[in-house]
Automatic annotation (TrEMBL):
Xref: Gene3D superfamilies: 3.30.1490.190, Winged helix-like DNA-binding domain superfamily/Winged helix DNA-binding domain
Sample GO molecular function, one term: zinc ion binding
Alphabetized SUPFAM superfamilies for the sequence: Winged helix' DNA-binding domain
Keywords: DNA-binding, Iron, Metal-binding, Repressor, Transcription, Transcription regulation, Zinc
Organism: Lederbergia citrea
Free-text remark on how the cofactor is bound: Binds 1 zinc ion per subunit.
Name of the protein in its database record: Transcriptional repressor
Length: 156
């Protein structure tokens, strides 16, 4: 985690920003919750647990700065809430999401998988792809398991 913070610090420096203690507190929360997709309010509540002096506006500005510097990506799963998602280091494109319509769980696919699609789009539309957002909506394996178990129980 420390080396990751160091690299983010360098990213900020190369854009002439400092990793102030407030910014660092926000970055730490994002790293500690890398699996999650936190809203600005979620991040703020977690930052506040350790650093009660930091306000929502500061956290919000930090998140916007980190978005600008491509440390995080801002995403929306259709519920009107902007969420902040750490970008995988060295990944050319943003990862994909599987959103469960039953339980709301969000899983990530880190493999790009879109190589062939990207080639077709670039060729047929003469379009240079820089990034993409891909969210699948469906029913996750946990919910499948639950409904399988329920069917089993109903049979008995
Ligand atoms: Zn994600
Ligand atoms: Zn891609
Ligand atoms: Zn589910």
């Amino acid at each position: 985690m420390e080396s990751r913070i160091d690299r983010i610090k360098k990213q900020l420096h190369s854009a002439s920003y400092k990793l102030t203690p407030q910014r660092e507190a926000t970055v730490r929360v994002l790293l500690e919750h890398e699996e999650d997709h936190l809203s600005a309010e979620d991040v703020y509540l977690l930052v506040k647990e350790k650093s009660p002096e930091i306000g929502l506006a500061t956290v919000y500005r930090t998140l916007e700065l980190l978005t600008e510097l491509k440390v995080v990506d801002k995403i929306n799963f259709g519920d009107g809430v902007s969420r902040y998602d750490l970008r995988q280091e060295g990944a050319a494109h943003f990862h994909h999401h599987l959103v469960c319509i039953e339980c709301g769980a969000v899983d990530e696919i880190q493999d790009d998988l879109l190589g062939d699609v990207e080639k077709i789009v670039e060729r047929d539309w003469n379009f240079k792809i820089k990034d993409h957002r891909l969210t699948f909506h469906g029913i996750c394996w946990r919910c499948h398991k639950k409904s399988d178990e329920k069917t089993e129980n109903d049979k008995q």
